[in-house]
């Protein structure tokens, strides 16, 4: 059996503030960003990070102390691994105190009437990063969401910032102590008074969406087996401004600063590189709203995002469909927009399903298949399926009554509802 490659020395701390203790300052999309980024990083067929090498902090866990503790954890990992490559990703508000000329990252446990005393000062954040003895470190700050993240959700309502504070992207010199280090780089999602925008379909921020594309190989060439910082820089610099203009008629120019050598940040397609056809061959086709990514995980897995009429599918052991929207577990799970003439089962015999004609497949299925009876040629109504929140002690549920219905998220925890399997 072919061994799966891993990016063994890769470590990451992913922070998405999400729900703020001061409700008006909450940014739910930042949690979606973190979950989508984590899924790409740990996917064995993509970036290949070991799951134990990644920590995420979202919602009530994204406190000032937890962020500093996470940076301390990275320091410990890098100290014990001289080949460590470290990624730190922060998505949340970032505000400048003009009276003191100090920049703050606004984490969950903020006190709105004492922001300077409760927020995480960028200088403290930078000092903690400097303690990480990694040869390669990438910091990504997506922090200017005051009207960027909120505008598309709240009809352009501006946030009520404390007196003296303004929403600005970090100044270019703020992270100079980091970028002077060999093998260290800093990305910010926008510049100056620009805002960081989300997709109009509310799935991900534009910056993170294109970052994920770059990690999947959007800027790579044939023959390359890893993704480097320069690949991220080139792709973000080209696509983020174009998307912001197309969707919001606004300027958003991501900034990248690394003054030394380029370095590898992840495996490319599990270390195999791009297939023939390069990025076009692996780029996912446009998905339905709320499902920008379709992946399958698990031996013999299947993930379907569209019409599979007349297909023979060999089922898998575990499927994840969409950017966390539909999580399917169990052997005979399919998610498709339209199904006609479909047979589902373990096998149709010793050959591939395509090797059989219709009559042979039917005969073979009668003898050996363990799946369902063939569905007739016309679409049939399906039995209602109940979906529930996977979080413990949550009573949120929803019933899906037709194939075409999109699966919603839990309104409390902002996670995908999952199907209840009948025994």
Topology (SSEs and partners):
Elements: E1 10-16, H1 29-42, E2 54-58, H2 64-80, E3 85-91, E4 93-97, E5 102-106, H3 115-118, E6 120-121, H4 122-130, E7 136-142, H5 148-151, E8 165-167, H6 176-179, E9 184-188, H7 206-215, E10 226-228, H8 229-248, E11 255-257, E12 264-267, H9 278-282, E13 295-296, E14 312-314, E15 318-321, E16 326-329, E17 343-345, H10 358-368, E18 385-388, E19 397-400, E20 418-419
Parallel strand pairs: 1-2, 1-3, 3-7, 7-9, 14-17
Antiparallel strand pairs: 4-5, 4-8, 5-6, 9-11, 10-12, 13-15, 15-16, 18-19, 18-20
Helix pairs in contact: 1-7, 7-8
- SS-based class: alpha/beta
The parts where pLDDT drops under 50 for at least 5 residues are: 146-157, 285-299, 305-332, 335-375, 378-382
Order of helices and strands: EHEHEEEHEHEHEHEHEHEEHEEEEEHEEE
What kind of sheet is the major sheet?
A: 6 strands, mixed
- Strands, count: 20
Radius of gyration: 23 Å
Q: Beta-strand percentage?
A: 15-25%
**General shape:** globular
DSSP summary: helix tally = 10
Helix proportion: 10-25%
Sheet with the most strands: spatial strand order: 2-1-3-7-9-11
* Mean model confidence by pLDDT: 75
Report how far the terminal alpha carbons are from each other.
33 Å
Structure summarized in a few sentences:
The protein is of the alpha/beta class and 423 residues long. The chain contains ten helices and 20 strands.
């Amino acid at each position: 059996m072919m061994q799966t490659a891993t990016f063994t020395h890769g470590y990451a701390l992913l922070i998405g503030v999400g729900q703020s203790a001061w409700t008006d300052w909450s940014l739910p999309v930042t949690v979606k960003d973190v979950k989508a980024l984590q899924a790409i990083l740990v996917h064995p067929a993509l970036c290949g990070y070991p799951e134990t090498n990644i920590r995420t902090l979202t919602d009530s866990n994204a406190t000032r102390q937890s962020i500093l503790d996470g940076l301390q954890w990275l320091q410990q990992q890098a100290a014990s691994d001289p080949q460590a490559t470290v990624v730190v990703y922060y998505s949340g508000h970032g505000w400048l105190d003009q009276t003191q000329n100090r920049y703050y990252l606004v984490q969950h446990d903020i006190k709105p009437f004492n922001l300077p005393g409760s927020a995480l000062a960028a200088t403290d954040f930078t000092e903690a990063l400097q303690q990480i003895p990694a040869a390669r470190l990438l910091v990504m700050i997506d922090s200017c969401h005051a009207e960027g993240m909120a505008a598309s959700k709240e009809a352009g309502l501006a946030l009520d910032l404390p007196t003296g504070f303004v929403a600005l992207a970090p100044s270019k010199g703020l992270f100079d102590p980091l970028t002077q280090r060999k093998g260290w780089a800093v990305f910010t999602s926008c510049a100056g008074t620009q805002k960081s925008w989300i997709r109009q379909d509310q799935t991900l921020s534009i910056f993170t969406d294109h970052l994920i594309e770059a990690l999947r190989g959007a800027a790579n060439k044939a023959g390359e087996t890893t993704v480097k910082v320069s690949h991220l820089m080139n792709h973000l610099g080209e696509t983020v401004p174009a998307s912001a203009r197309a969707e919001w008629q606004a300027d958003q120019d991501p900034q990248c600063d690394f003054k030394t050598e380029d370095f590898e940040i992840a495996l490319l397609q599990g270390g195999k590189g791009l297939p023939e056809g390069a990025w076009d061959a692996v780029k996912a086709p446009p998905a339905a709203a709320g499902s920008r990514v379709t992946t399958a995980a698990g031996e013999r897995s299947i993930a379907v995002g569209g019409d599979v009429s007349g297909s023979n599918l060999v089922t898998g052991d575990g499927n994840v469909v969409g950017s966390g929207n539909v999580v399917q577990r169990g052997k005979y799970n399919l998610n498709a927009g339209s199904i006609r003439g479909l047979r589902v089962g373990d096998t149709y015999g010793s050959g591939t399903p395509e090797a059989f004609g219709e009559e042979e497949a039917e005969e073979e299925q009668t003898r050996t298949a363990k799946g369902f009876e063939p569905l007739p040629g016309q679409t049939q109504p399906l039995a209602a399926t109940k979906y529930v929140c996977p979080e413990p002690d949550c009573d949120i549920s929803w019933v899906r009554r037709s194939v075409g219905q999109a699966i919603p998220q839990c309104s409390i925890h902002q996670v995908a509802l999952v199907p209840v399997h009948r025994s």
